[in-house]
Fold this protein.
Amino acid sequence: MNLATTRAGQALPERREVAAHPHAARLTLRAIGLGYLSVLLALPVLMVFLRTFEHGLEPVLAALQRPAFGSAFWLTLQITLIAVPVNTVFGIIAALAIVRRRFPGRSLLNAVIDLPFVLSPVIIGLSLVLVYGQTGWLGGALGDLGIQIIFAPPGMILATLFVSLPFVVREVIPVLREVGTDQEQAAYTLGASRWRTFWRVTLPSVRWGVIYGVILTTARSLGEFGAVAIVSGKISGRTETLTTHVEERFLAFDLVGAYTASIVLALMALAVLFSMTVIQAGRHDKGNH
Amino acid sequence: MTSTTGAVPRHGPAFGRYDGQGLLGPGLAAGYLALLVLIPIAAILWRSVSDGLDAFMMAVTSEQALAAIRLTLSLSFVVMVINLVMGTVLAWVLVRDDFPGKALVNAVIDLPFALPTVVAGLTLLTLYGPQSPFGLNLAYSQAGIALAMLFITLPFVVRAVQPVLAEIDREMEEAAASLGASGPTIVRRIVLPNLAPAMLTGAALGFARSIGEFGSVVLIAGNLPYRTELASVYIFGRVEANQPGAAAAVSVLLLLTSLLLLTAFDIVRRRISRHDEPVSA
């Protein structure tokens, strides 16, 4: 009877209550856990929504129509639209290399991919300035060619690529391991070319991992602050993203402006969260792939 | 696990193109990583000493820098301990308990991963800032920084413990109970030892995240030198003040310290897991 597999987040099947967890203890833990979540997560998020609309809709609409908000919004979207596809393609290539290939330095490559997770965004921004800034290793030469990276959108794209690099790789690797190579080998024996096998067999079999990785990459790209703040110089109307716009409005004592931009970002985050939940459910319902 | 499941058969004529020898993919991946990650990190290492060793020493022994690093490490540690407790409680509630709305609660746990950090900071300020409806103003205080760190690191321990707790064979607990063990004894002697490695893994990830955190704390902390200035904010300040050498030197110190601590955690985790083997086998 204990063979029924359970997984995180799913209602457990009815069981005989273990004496170790009497009713009172269970209710206490539930109260502590849910209380902690409300105080730390739920109430603050609700409060932002209340505060944003406490003076009605008009100030919010005015904040949405500010040119600085508009340009920050579009720049954020553009950066995300470039960073996500690039890191998705890289992520699939890197995952295939790590799982399916044997080459010297493979485990080093595997380790380096996680670096963006443990580095402070500030340090990431600084490292890019040191390479691509005016006095950086490559910045001078690029500047002579008339290419400006730092304090311009290209640097912000680089920073976003850096911080969101590991997500697709990390989501695709376990799926690739799990699906194995049987189907690909069958395709090869039947005479399919490498490309055809990739498009028709490999990619479809890892699609849930790719989609989940893309969602995480998107969330991180939309929300990156520290690294982008350093490389962008936060020039209002030119190199401001939604996140740096929030900070700029806050420091200018325009709380409604800061809250409005925050809400736009929070709604995007909720959309991300929603798709994550739906996709997790979809993945599990497919059973063992 | 790294090398076994991914292994590809190396022979057989039909798989000639599939022998794992092609280097185009690995080459592309390595080149991209080198350009985007490795060269910039090398630039930090180089820049930290390029003004000479004296400049490096001066930067990393500056009172303000050391105070910032001390504050970062101690707050991250406190946050990690709270996460170990609360993360495990939440995981337990999500796996072993059942109540209406549990699926929603489970989804909300990931919110800190989805919400931009600066929005998280502003969010906390609306409830625990100068305009707090409870009159609880944590702005510009170390408690406020800890709160922001707790917010952004919430999912790590929960998500590490949850699957392990769901897989634990409950017959062990039932056996202990039928032999007369009390609830607390079962938790202490059976449940916690089984969860400990996962708890520590999640805690270490959260610790690494707290050490580097910037976006969520920058608005709350007020960044008063010696009192509420974190290492990442200090480094940001050096960059803004056009002192990239000092910024790089403190970055290197911060990186080495956190690397050292994470290695220490890993050793503890391994020791605990090994000690645990006879129990879980």
